[in-house]
Amino acid sequence: MTWMFVALFVPLLVGNYAIAKNFLYPPAIFSGVWLFSLLGLALAGGLFNPVSIGALAVYWVGGLAFSVGGVLAMSANIGARVSNPFPLDRRRQLRGCWIFFW
C-alpha cells in the first residue's frame, strides 16, 4: 500500500514543480519530503511497523490541500506586491550558499 502512495506523490511533486518552476516552492518541498520519506519506508520493507491506510491518506490529502493553497496564492499574485528583500549583490552571495546545500 505504501508503494501506491509513493506513486501518488510523484505527480503531486511534478505538478508543483511545473507550477512554480522551482523546487523551493513550499508545496513542492512538502510533497518531496513526503515522497522521499515514504519511498524510504517502502524500500525498508518489513523493518518498520506498517503505516495505516488512513495515515497515508492524511499525508496525501495534506499534500494536495497544500498544493491547492499554493496554486491559489500564486494565482492571486500575492507576492507581486512584496518587494524583493535581498538586493542583487546579496542574492549573488546567497547563490553560492544554495549550491553548497544542494
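The above is record 1. Record 2 follows with the same two-line structure.
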Amino acid sequence: MSAAREETIRDLKALRAHLDRTIERLEKGGTLARDAASAERTPPDAGLAEPFVGRLIRSKYSGRCLVCGENYHLDEQVLYSRELRRSAHPRCGKASP
C-alpha cells in the first residue's frame, strides 16, 4: 500500500472518530461549537458606511456578518464586498446590480 493511501485511510479514520464523538455529544443533548458561537454576538462595525453593498454568493467558509455581528455558515447565501473583503447577511445590506 502506498504512503499516500495509508495517510488517507488514517485521516478518514480520525474523521470518523471525530464524527462519532460529535454524534454522541448531540445524542446526549449537547450542542455544536458553532451553535454556541452563534449565541455570541459581536457589536456592529461603527465605521461602516450604510448600507453594506456586495455581490450575492454562497459562502465558502463560516464567518461573522460585518453589519450585525451574527454568524453565517458554510454554503449560506451572503453578500460579499470585494473592496472590503468582508461578508454580510443579505438582510443586512443590498445586492449590487
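The longest strand covers residues 52-58.
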